[in-house]
Design brief:
The complex is a heterodimer of chains A (645) and B (346). Chain A has 645 residues and is an alpha/beta fold. In chain A, 49% of the residues lie in helices and 12% in strands. Among the domains of chain B are: 60 residues; 97 residues, no CATH class. Classes of the chains: A alpha/beta (645), B alpha/beta (346).
């Protein structure tokens, strides 16, 4: 009976909260929000905030320019400009609101319907949008104003109607993206009806782009409103409007240029604020939904050596290719360094295959990336050495290392497609790479490219060379990736889960290919995997990693037949093929602790069946139990007494 | 065979996808049955149609021909409104526990959703049921107030199972439900599935590409290739060394076993495995779809579609050359070499 103890990781708050927080950290957004807020409040409270009646004429103070009495001056009839701006703003902002409400109230449901339903609804809505977009907005609004003279509400509502296609398309494409997500299918199978699915599962992912669009539309609407007011189409000349004030100012620009400044500036700044707010929201929403993790060269922080592994004897073997000693990798972003990989050490010899096995979150991939100096941003090597034929790779200059990487050490990842540029054919990328390594002509490079593709057992190398990454199947893409790795004739190939995403038949072929290449070229191979079958198939020796540490290291026969660490034993026993059909599998309770929450003594102790008091006293060293077989378990004698007898 | 009505009976099911002008047979005349309390595995490589079968059973893709009987009633041609009612008794767990839950909703909301959808208005009853199901999948009640990303992959998959079981269904479709999990977590989830099945005669359709897992958990196995059934029968036969179809044999041989010596012996048996041909390769309706990859093919395989016929107790196989091809399996060779000639091409 498995008892599952669960700890729950506590992290930052949900997406929408995060977006709001990001937005409020952006000074531009804060400035825009503050400005629009003040303008709106002042305009709404016009009877209180405006110093004068906007219609009150004082013919003794005509075109005065800014004075203590009239802060922003007076117009041609001596009316206070500030008061007119405040009263005019009520009309302008109401118009913007009308436009935005119409456009979202109609555009969003139509977009949702088109994106979610698809089929004929989508086609009809699409045609509708195209038709509207073909109609010149200004002319339609002019017709509306001809029928309903000076009715600004009608004008703005029709402007809103004409703006529907833009928002509709954005909503439709956002909906299409979410609709394919598994949780929408899951909601359907849960028995929710369509309205509930849209409300709960689609709309929360659409509102971000909607707000962006609405904000940008508000900017257009204001521009448009002031435009028609400028033309005098919406109100009689005495009513204050922002556009009307610009129009009036333009008639007296020779006599008093100042009059254009207050209204013009206000319009420009308000439009700018709407636009900037839209941009800021878009940035916040995009980052909130998962920012990009960028890869950057590792910053190497060298630290004094800490207590290390027991030196591995050479066992009289020659051809040491790579020697890793006391490798520490930690997070460097936060104030407190959290170790991810903790004093890992191993040797790799020419022609051999070393397997690194463990569950996700144990530090397998990070170890490989650290050796290649390809750690993602936020992680750094904080100690240890990686020797490559006597040189420490970690203290090498970037230029020297660049030469080495690719020519002597190569890397194949789990997602071969992502390492290929989708814009170029496989052949042209391969030619680029070959010419980077050797000074040969394009023609010659092309023929070596074909030869490489043939070497990785692709059936039609000429045809493959002319295809693009997305046209390749998973197995073909992995072969192509291996061909790329072979360009520099590496002495060591590091393959991180190279077959995990592939079908078993293709996996068998890729493993066969790697074995053949190794036999032909004598290169060493480090293979990272979580699959015991793959280890058994191709590896000579293996290390087992748990919570950032190596817990066991041995030749594979010893590891499979006589594991000397409870984690290795547990992991082997969880393999279904080693259990009776329909019986309970012997599973390890709990899950791998995340970095930062590693237990202080034996890291496996909370999940270990054999845990005793002595296991909790302090860190456990990696002990050589037998020649070439080490284990990080102090109870190894008691636990495995039977096995070794 | 069985005196009881099968939970699910799929008969001559075909599903077609239209890609531009090309029509591809995602499923072509597929039949199988699931009895109460039984686990039936659907096995095959990517593109074999196993996930399409799940979607067709759930009504997420339109059925081109054939019938899907759920407790004796054909549900293949029901409109969505009627179909919805079957979700009380039929649920699914997807492969990817990360994208199958809405990141903006708490686990409690996600879990109580099926109850709301089927009209449970009592808030307290819903909450109690959520706690009960969380406990059954070994999670603390406090999990209800958290968001999906606060859980590990294995925990999320257990939550997905809890969601599927909220309405106490009779049939659970597991679409690669343990494939993305780590070994020790996979073992936990497999044990949980068996535990739940024993508690309540639940039936599973277990879709997987991993024959090791299928052998462990399934009673019967259906092997699919390019939308057609190649072989089906008791798991012991299908996923053992006595499989009746060369394709199944190929799949079985390709799975590396976690034992270096045994694996080396397997590996040195001549490789008959070849990559699946690309999707664009034209394969006619009137031939064996596996013939282009089959080392044992004969001219007949290229012009006549093999029909399913009985093989070993309670099994069927679609192969013209069963059982004589089995005697042509190459003997182990001392060295790791490719000795078998490349498959004949027309």
């Amino acid at each position: 009976m498995s008892v599952l103890t669960d700890q729950i990781v506590i992290g930052p708050a949900s997406h929408s909260h995060q977006s709001v927080r990001l937005l409020l950290r952006n000074p531009v957004a804060i400035a825009a929000i503050t400005f629009l807020g003040i303008v709106t409040l002042v305009c709404i409270g016009a009877p209180v905030t405006a110093p004068f009646d906007p219609l009150h004429q004082d013919l003794e103070r005509v075109l005065s320019g800014p004075t203590a009495h009239n802060l922003l001056g007076t117009d041609t009839l001596g009316r206070d400009v500030l008061s007119r701006l405040i009263y005019g703003g009520r009309r302008s902002l109401l118009s913007v609101l009308e436009g935005v409400v119409v456009v979202t109230a109609l555009g969003v449901p139509m977009g949702l319907a088109a994106g979610y339903t698809g089929g004929w609804v989508d086609r009809v809505v699409g045609k509708f949008a195209e038709t509207i977009m073909a109609v010149p907005a200004l002319i339609i609004v002019l017709v509306v104003l001809a029928v309903l003279p000076q009715n600004e509400d009608a004008a703005m509502i029709s402007f809103g109607l004409l703006g529907i296609p833009a928002i509709l398309r954005v909503v439709r494409s956002a909906t299409l993206r979410v609709r394919e997500d598994l949780y929408v299918a899951a909601a359907r199978v849960s028995g929710l009806n369509h309205v509930q699915i849209v409300k709960r599962h689609i709309f929360p992912h659409v509102w971000g782009p909607v707000i962006v669009q609405a904000s940008l539309f508000a900017a257009y609407a204001l521009l448009f409103e002031t435009g028609i007011a400028y033309l005098g189409l919406t109100a009689d000349p005495s009513t204050p409007t922002w556009g009307g004030m610009v129009a009036e100012a333009s008639t007296v620009i020779q006599r008093q240029a100042w009059l254009l400044v207050p209204s013009g500036t206000l319009i420009a700044v308000t439009i700018l604020a709407f636009g900037l707010l839209g941009d800021a929201i878009r940035d916040a929403v995009v980052i909130g939904e998962g920012g990009l993790a960028r890869r950057a060269p590792t910053s190497v922080v060298t630290k004094p050596d800490r207590a290390g592994d027991i030196a591995e004897p050479l066992n009289g073997r020659s051809g040491l290719v790579l020697r890793v000693r006391d490798l520490w990798v930690s997070t460097t972003s936060s104030a407190a360094e959290t170790p991810i990989v903790d004093r890992v050490g191993f040797d790799v010899y020419a022609g051999e295959t070393l397997g690194i096995i463990g569950e996700s979150g144990c530090g397998k991939s990070v170890t490989a990336l650290a050796v290649l100096r390809l750690l993602p941003q936020g992680l750094g090597v904080t100690g240890g050495q990686v020797y490559w034929q006597g040189d420490d790779l970690l203290s090498m200059t970037e230029r020297l290392f660049d030469e080495l990487r690719g020519s002597s050490v190569a890397y194949v990842s789990q997602e071969p497609q992502s390492s290929l540029d989708p814009a170029f054919t496989v052949g042209s990328q391969l030619v680029e790479l070959i010419r980077h390594h050797q000074r040969v002509s394009r023609r010659k490079a092309w023929s070596s490219a074909i030869a490489l593709l043939r070497q990785v057992e692709l059936q039609n190398p000429d045809q493959v060379a002319r295809t693009y990454a997305h046209e390749l199947s998973g197995g073909m893409a992995q072969r192509v990736a291996i061909a790329f790795a072979l360009v520099g004739r590496p002495k060591l190939l590091i393959a991180d889960e190279p077959t995990t995403a592939l079908d078993v038949t293709v996996q068998a072929e890729i493993l066969g290919l790697l074995r053949r290449l190794q036999r032909e070229t004598g290169m060493a191979l480090i293979l990272i995997t979580h699959n015991w079958g793959v280890i058994a198939d191709i590896c000579d020796r293996a290390v087992v990693m748990y919570a950032g540490q190596i817990v066991e290291k041995s030749g594979i026969r010893e590891m499979f037949h006589k594991p000397l660490h409870p984690y290795t034993l547990g992991l082997l026993k969880s393999h279904p093929s080693l259990a009776e059909p329909r019986s309970r599998l012997s599973s390890i309770p709990g899950s791998v602790p995340s970095p930062g929450s590693w237990p202080p003594a034996c890291r496996f102790s909370p999940r270990c069946r054999f845990v005793a008091d002595e296991c909790l006293k302090g860190p456990i060293p990696l002990i050589d139990v037998e020649p070439g077989h080490s284990s990080r378990c102090i109870r190894v004698d008691q636990i495995f007494a039977k096995a070794s007898a | 065979m069985s005196p009881e009505t099968p939970v699910l009976s799929v008969e001559h099911l075909s599903v077609r996808y239209r890609r531009g002008r090309r029509i591809s047979n995602a499923l072509d005349d597929v039949s199988f049955e699931v009895q109460p309390g039984e686990t039936v595995g659907l096995v095959g490589e990517s593109g074999s149609g196993k996930s399409t079968a799940a979607k067709a059973i759930l009504g997420l893709v339109p059925v081109y021909a054939g019938f899907i009987y759920f407790f004796g009633t054909d549900i293949a041609h029901l409109p969505f409104k009627e179909r919805r009612k079957t979700y009380r008794q039929m649920q699914i767990v997807f492969q990817d526990p990360y994208s199958s839950m809405n990141p903006t909703r708490t686990i409690g909301n996600t879990l109580s959703e099926p109850l709301e959808a089927f009209g449970e208005r009592d808030h307290k009853a819903r909450r109690d049921r959520v706690y009960e199901m969380l406990e059954r999948v070994h999670l603390p009640p406090s999990a209800a107030n958290r968001y999906p990303w606060q859980f590990s992959g294995g925990q999320r998959q257990r939550i997905a199972i809890a969601r599927a079981l909220m309405l106490s269904p009779r049939l659970l479709i597991l679409d690669e439900a343990v494939s993305s999990l780590d070994l020790s977590v996979q073992a936990q989830v497999l044990n949980l599935l068996q535990e739940l099945q024993e508690a309540s005669a639940l039936s599973y359709v277990f879709i997987s590409h991993d024959l090791g897992v299928v052998r462990h958990i399934c009673d019967r196995v259906v092997v699919l290739y390019r939308g057609r059934v190649m072989e089906s029968g008791p798991a012991l036969f299908v996923s053992g060394r006595n499989s009746a179809h060369p394709y199944t044999y190929t799949l079985n041989e390709a799975v590396p076993v976690p034992d270096p010596d045994a694996q080396q012996a397997r590996r040195s048996v001549a490789r008959s495995v070849t990559s699946p041909p690309s999707d664009t390769t034209k394969i006619g309706d009137e031939q064996c779809v596996f013939a282009p990859r089959c080392p044992w093919n004969q001219p007949r395989c290229w012009r006549e579609r093999p029909l399913l016929r009985p093989a070993y107790p309670n099994g069927v196989v679609a192969c013209h050359r069963y059982p004589e091809w089995q005697s042509e399996i190459a003997r182990p060779e001392p060295l790791d070499a490719h000795v078998l000639p490349a498959p004949k091409r027309r």
